[in-house]
Every structure is written in structure tokens, then in C-alpha cells.
Amino acid sequence: MWAFWLFVSDHILKYRWIWLSLLALSTTYMILVQGNEVAQHFALAIPDDSEEMKTFLRFKETYGDDGLLILVSIEQKSHEKHDQNLLKPLFQFGEKCRQIDGVNAIISPSHFQELKYDPQGGRFFLTDFLEKMPEDSLIRQRWNQFVSNPFYSPILLNADTSHALMIIVLDAQKLDTEAKFGIIEKIYAAGDSFASAGEYRLAYAGMPVFREYMLRIIPQELSLFMGCTLLVAALVLFFFFRSLPLVLIPLVNMGVAILWALGILGLLGYQMNLLTGTIPALIGIISLPNFLYLVSHYQIEYERLQDKKASFRKVFGEIGFVMLLSNLTTAIGFAMIAFSDIQVLREFGIACSLSILAAFVISIIGLPIGLSQINPSPRYKSNKKAKVLMTAALQRMGDWVIYQRKWIYVASFLLVGISVFYMLQIRVEAFMLDDIPDRNTLQKDLKEIESHFGGVMPYEVLVDAGKRRAFSSWSNLNRLHQFEQSLDSLDKVSGFRSLADLLSYGRQAFWGGAPDQYGFPDRNELAFILDALRKTDMDFRQLGFQLADSSLSQARISGRIYDLGTMEMEKINQQVYRLGEAVFDSSKYGLTITGTTQVFLKGNDYLVNNLFFTIFIGLMIVSLIVGISFRSYKLWIASISTNLLPLLIVAGIMGLMGIPLKPSTCIVFCISFGIAIDDSLHFIIRYQHRRLQKGLQPVETVRLTLRETGIGMVLTSLVLFLGFSIFLGSAFGGINLLGLLTAMTLFFALFCNLLLLPAILLSLDA
């Protein structure tokens, strides 16, 4: 192995211009193919072949996308309740929105489709409630007509407060393109104009608004993370070396590594999302210790040998294999995630692991070539006080390891017990707006609309009779009506509409439009209403709802639900199934809950289950590599057990602090294990080397190894801690937790590697 790394060192320096040209050409290519295109839709973390996904896709094909609605709450500040004065300004607001390219329909107190009956033709037809701005003399009359409309008024007006609701239906095709940014900006502009007089306050919610916000922020996050990463790297490098060339050369290499990460995303055809948007910053953070190890060791050897080539040979011979092994285990930590059958995780894991290996290759090519062109400055030796304090602390730790080893074991076992206790209390839970902080305007608007109009997130229930025209019979439709009425009793779910409501509205229209005629038709009325509907040539989606499939074998009940999270959602689902089974015979009818909300939250369960499996697989692979590298079961036990404890501690902290287990927190364990084990590798290899080379006793070897590697372990851990802390500045809660928990894991891993690892080595060597 030593000979191989000497060959690598000699070859790179001898053919430096060839290697530099190849690196420059390949980096130029990576710039040309870099992947910075932002995904224009939510990545559903659920396998394509799962039953839930198949049901959802069939639902979208039949009924369209349920995530197209923007809900706008309109609060009248100066009145306790809305009155007819709202109608004219709201009509103008709605007309502006309706003229926006990409807006398909407006449903509000001033804009909705009235269902009417033509006795002569024996059919129904739809007409605009307001075709033009109403005259002042008709305002009160038209307002009263809306308030008394039993199909729309309960959904669009809170009778107890000064809040009305506008529903804006967007074009599905444009929502999956960048055109949605312009559409939503124009809606906001129309809303600002409407509210400019100060009389009204608007709140916006709905899947298009949430998508637009998150996808708009991702490029900003990418720039922020990359800028912060380079700034942290520059400060750390300057603190270590106090030399402009020794800051610039590693920074250039880091920049090249980041460009390669973007290029790998482009080559693989991956788009930017919440996870892949963090990859360039992650690569910069993870590659920084490579630069610190190489540059600092090179300085040490150059001071001693005063020869660049001999110094590089010595550096590569001593730490080349360690660096390869540490980068490989880190890459495997990310590659664990690539075992998932969830596309968004698989893309993140593959791109990260390849980028880490690319960053390692760049560092062992670019740094020696850059450093060979300058005269190394002497190592920075000021701040001796800090060095003395750190050396004294490591000396004290060495004493604890040698003389108080049993108490280290006692403390470790206590931590394991406490951590396991709290770890078992971790909730597996995610929310639709998990990644948006509570202080954000979107969260505040969501809570406001939920408090006045019930839920915002779509909630879809399908009843399948399995026979054509099953829902043209009065008995089945009456069951549907009873089921929907029972659903209205549920908490946190509201706004249900079904085919039964359409027939109730049809009955009202059939009998002349009087509000007191709104109600579910009897058997005789149903025959006339269905006959009139068959003669009607119109798209009932103009009412805002597509409520049955073309064969009438399946009926849809569409509602809205609060952003409850997966645990509470599961309780609601169980209640819905129980209510459905009380009305529909489960042997004859199929009941399914689907829709964007259901599939999005269901994906959390798939993610967590997949990550548990991939973490296990990854641990086995890393363990195998470490075992093969050391060829000693004792060293394998020492390295693996040392780095499992920090994971347990952080899992316990999550349970204690009520941090739920979800994709962003689960990924932490994959990332942290691969990074944390690096310090163990450095310590064990140096321990082995000193033990065999100098023939020292275990106690003396531990003291020497702590003295030689301890400061480096502390400083590199500090660098990684600072690096992952940049994610605390993210606008997304999941990324905040990713940075916080990873930094915490690395912090605990440092102390485990400085105390528990040498204690285990002493015990095993004894």
C-alpha cells in the first residue's frame, strides 16, 4: 500500500501539467452539463409500483389534479360580518384573476356557476351568477341570493365572522412549469390592489402557493449554502495557515469539487429539490478536512525535509490510505440512502456518494500541483496558549482513559440506557408544511383559513360499487348521501361535496331555484333529475367538482382537511373507514382514501421504513470495509461500537425534545455515521502504526496517539461542526434539523473517539 501511494505522489508531480490540463478540461465539461434546473413539482416519496400510488394516478386520470386550488381568505376589518358592500370590489378582484393566463376558474361570492333548469328542453344549464358588475340598486338582492345559496354559501362564507373565501382553480399543465411563478405573482398583485384601500386583509393557502414558495426558495438556498460554505472554508483556512496562497489553493479545489457536484447532478439528469439542493454545500463541507489534513501534513514534512517531492511522498505514504478509507466510508454513508426505492432519496444518495469520491480525487490531484508551485510558509505557531490548553485537555483525557476506564464504560452504558429509553418515544410523523417555519406568513395564513373555513389540504374519498351505472340508482345515491352527512360530523375535515350534493342542487333548480327546495331527491324526483342530466351537454367541473367517473361505477367525496400530520391523519382515516363500513357493505363496495395530501404524507412512512433498512445495510457495508482494512475483529469492535453511541445519543435527544422521525431527521444517521467514523480510522491507524513501529506498550501508545492525532481530530470536528451549522440558516425546517442533528452527532462522536475508543483499545489489547 505504501508503494502504491508513493507511485501516485510521484506520478502526479512528474506529469503535473497533463493532470492539471485533464482536470481543467473535465471541470469545463462539468460546468457545461451542470444540473441546476429546479424541479417544478413536489417529489412524491412513494414508490411508483405501490398500491397507493397506482390508486392516486387512476384518481388523477379520472378526476384531474386535486392540488390546483388556491384558497384566498378575505377578512373585512371594519365589520363583524361581511355584507353586500363586498360584492362589487370582490367582483373586480375576481375578474382580474380570471383574466390571468393559467387561471381556469374562480369560485367566490361574486363568481360561481348557478345550476338552472330549462322546462321546455327538459335539461339543466349553467350560468354565471354575475355576468357583469351589478348595479347599485341590485347589490343587496344579489348578495342575499348568494347568502341563501345552500350549495356554495356554506363553503364560501363564514356566517359567524367577517371572512369570505375565494377559490382560484389553476391550469394543471402550467402548474408543472415555471409559468406558475408568473401566475401566482399576478394573483398576489391583484390581491394587493383589492386590499390597497385597507378595508380588507387577505390570506393565501393551497398546494400551488406552497409549491411556488418552496420551489422559489430552493435556488436562493443553493446560493446561500454555497456562499456560506466558501466563507467558512476561507475563515478556517486562514485561521490555520495565515497565508493567502494556502487559503486560495484549497478554496479553488473546493470550488472545483462543487462544480463537479453540480456536473454530476446534470450528467445523471437529476433536478434540484430540497435534498439535492444541499449537495454542493455538503461536498464543500466534507472536502474541507481533506485539504486541512494534506496541507498541514505537507507543511510539517516540508519543515523537516526541505524538499517538496520528498515531503509529498511522505505525506501520501502516511495518510493517503487513511484519507481514501475515510472518504470511502463517508461516501458509503450517503450511498446507504441510494438503496432506497424512493426516487428522491435514491437520487440524493447516488449524487452525494459520487461527488464525495470525485472531491477526494480532485484534492489529491489539485492540492499537490498547487502547493508544488509555491514555497510553503512556516506553520502558524502563534496562539500557543490555545495549543497548550488543548494539549493539557488531551493529557487529562489520556489519564481518564488509563486510570478511570471503568467510569468511562459506566457513563457509556448509562448513556446507552437513557438514550434507548427516550429513543423509543420518538414519533414517526410529518406534516405537509413541515419544512416551512411557524413564523412564516404561509403558516400564519394556513392557520387563519383553517380556523374560519376548516381544512385547506385536499382530502379525497372514493366509493367503488364495481358495476356500471351503480350510482344512478336511488339506493346507492342515498347511501352516498348518508355517508357524506356522517363525514360532516368529523373534526378537522370540512367542505365535503359529492354527487349527492349535485343532485340536491339539481332538485333545487328543478323546482324553480328556491333555496328551500335544496335537498336530496326522492325516488320519483331522481328519475326526472337524472333524465335531465343525461340531456345536459356541459362539463360539471365548472361547478368546481368532478364527482363521479364516466361509467357512474365510482363516486367521489371531495373535502378539505387540516394539516394534521401523519399520526392524526391516520386516526381520521380510520374514522372514515368505520363510517363508510356502517353505510356500505364492504363485500360489495370498495372504499379508498386518496389524493395529494394522503399520498404525500403516506410517503413519509415509506421513507422512514426505507431508511431504517438502508441504514442497516450501510452499517454492514461500512463494518465490512473497516474489518477488511484492519483485519482484526478487536479493532472492528472498537471502531463500530464507538460510532454507534453518538447515533444513539442523538436519537435519545430527539425523543426527549419531541423531534419526530421523518426523512430529514432520518437521513442524519446515514450521513453522520459515515463522517464520524473518519476520526476512528485516523486514531486506530496511527495507534497501530505507533504500536508496531516503536514497539510501545498499549498505555504509552494511547498517550502518544492522543497527543499526535487529538488536536487534528478536535479541529476537523470543529470544522465539520461549523460547516453543518450553516444549514441552520435555511428557510426550511427539515434542512435546519439536518444541520443541527448532524452537528450534534459529530460533537458527541468527537468525545467518543477521544475517550471511549482508546479505552476499548486498551481493554482489547490487554
Strand runs, count: 11
Number of helices: 25
Q: Strand content of the residues, in percent?
A: 5-15%
Query: Globular, elongated, flat, extended or rod-shaped: what is the shape?
Result: elongated
Return the structural class.
alpha+beta
Average of per-residue pLDDT values: 83
CA radius of gyration:
33 Å
Helix content: 55-70%
The major beta sheet can be summarized as: 5 strands, antiparallel
Q: How would you classify the quaternary structure?
A: single chain
Low-confidence stretches: none
**What is the end-to-end distance?**
29 Å
Secondary structure elements and pairings:
Blueprint: H1 2-14, H2 16-33, H3 51-63, E1 69-76, H4 87-98, E2 103-107, E3 113-118, E4 123-128, H5 139-147, H6 153-156, E5 157-158, E6 163-170, H7 172-175, H8 179-195, E7 200-205, H9 207-241, H10 244-268, H11 279-305, H12 308-338, H13 343-371, H14 384-403, H15 405-423, H16 441-453, E8 457-464, H17 474-487, E9 493-497, H18 499-510, H19 523-535, E10 554-561, H20 566-583, E11 590-594, H21 596-630, H22 633-657, H23 663-694, H24 698-725, H25 733-765
Antiparallel strand pairs: 1-6, 1-7, 2-6, 3-4, 5-6, 8-10, 8-11, 9-10
General description of the model:
This protein is α+β, with helices and mostly antiparallel strands and 766 residues long. It is built from 25 helices and eleven strands. A hairpin with a 4-residue loop joins strand 5 (157-158) and strand 6. Helix 11 packs parallel to helix 13.
